[in-house]
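User: We ran a pulldown and think these components assemble together. Before we commit to crystallization trials, I'd like a predicted model of the whole complex to look at. Sequences follow.
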Amino acid sequence: MLQLNERDNAMLAGEFGPGVARAMRIVTRTADVMSAPRLIDIGSAHIDGCLYHGQTSLDFVEFFVATQTKVAVPTTLNVGSLDLIHPELYHGDREIQRSAQRLMDAHLLLGCESSFTCAPYQLKNRPSFGDQIAWAESNAIVFANSVLGARTNRYGDFLDLAAAITGRAPCAGLHVDRNRAAQIVFRVADFSPLPSRDIYFAALGLLVGKVAGATVPAIVGLPSDTSEDELKALGAAAASSGAVALFHAVGITPEAPTLDAALHGRSPLDTVDVSVADLDEVRRTLNHGREGDELVAVSLGTPHFSLAEFQRLATLLDRFGAGRKPKVDFYVNTSRFILWELTERGLARQFDERGIQVVVDTCTYITPVMKKLTGLVMTNSGKWASYAPANIGVTVAYGSMAECVQSAFEGKVRFHG
Amino acid sequence: MLRGDVLVAGRAHAEKIVLTQPLSFWGGYDAAAGLIIDRTHPLAGASLAGKIMVMAHAKGSSSSSSVLAEAIRNGTGPLGIVLRERDLIIAIGALVAFELYRVEVPVVCVDARSFAHLVASTGPLRIEADAATGRAAIYVDAG
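Assistant: Here's a predicted model for the assembly, 560 residues in total across the polymer chains.
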């Protein structure tokens, strides 16, 4: 039975206005569904509700606007359906465009930050170890829990905003220490010396998500110099093939100094050995491009590209000479904050001159911004490869960043092995 | 009569539709047309409109809550839902549809044995999900 404190009850009773009362009803009913004994304070929220799904999206948020409700904690926004910095890129239905813009604007009126990114952990003020937060967006959730050691459940539409408005979340699931123990162990063969190292993190994530489902996995055997961007790719892929909200990478992520620590001293329910051949099989399943096939575009940056990834891309582009442009459309999704940093460093102009289309505030797999939405598109993202075919109708070739760049310059799929 | 837990309160009386595979409403259900559009789903092309959906749990993106609420708003969604797991995404979609539009779509959760019984049963179902007691009654073959 859910126990509420005095302030929770006051919110429910409407003492803070009808918007807060509605938000609290949603939080408490969700707490009942989760069998939570009480609510806890949260330090930040990340909202996935600014992607337009229909009239319900607008009705939900505009009630809070009309009742002058505000968020109670620092709140970032996930991607919307539009690139508000480059609005000309959108070539979908005009009425949906207007509604999508209204939805993004409405969230700003509630006091949310205009971050519009699926990688809020790349912003300056990201959560710290042990912080209780209410985040939506599957890749952000898994990154916050696993890499930062902050604590959130897999929140989603409606509850994310209700938690932001009340500053409260159900005390259940991954907010609670004992539920963060790993239950299944993946022992991974060393793939670090292989040429397309980045692709293996996404492939491993897809495999882990498929096998682990909603349980917490511990991964043993990742390279000791594994970067945040590689963990980002792994987590995003695991959260798209399964319901993974937290993984432990032993020796790398903060709650897993040792395997025993990740398991909270208990025995795992299962141990799975992963060979390089298993990972190559995942790559083959996801990839629908053959060596030499004609490409229409390349899309990188799902989740949103980091500064480090842009630097790596610049290095790869340099190999093809300063004056040369790719033969096919080349998109990179990122946040407006990373774009501003690129601009400050003079890099944004260089990418522009090289024919790289930077897309912000949204993502190429959820909204019509790419010029061509049929044909073969190459990506290094396990998440993009999983969702784009159903969402926007393209066929996917799946390769490393280096393979994507070379293929873009040749206009044909090229694999390095 | 079977017993279950109330996730979202309400009453429903309709023919059932059993989904043997989990459905992601986002990307899997067209809330305007009221059709399952996930081509890999065994019931692709079927409609949930006017029926009680029986499904163990949902899958996929949390954006599914929005798509379910939108389907309920449009009258293209199910009239009631029976689950085997306490699925948050489904429950939140239905409870927000009630908050916004006062449309009651009861969501109840039953144990594995009752679930198997419901799947095997014939005829329409009737759900009475009472918020006050937190206990739901599901009547089988309630023609």
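The first strand of chain A starts at residue 39 and ends at 41. That may be worth checking against your pulldown data before setting up trials.

User: Thanks, that helps.
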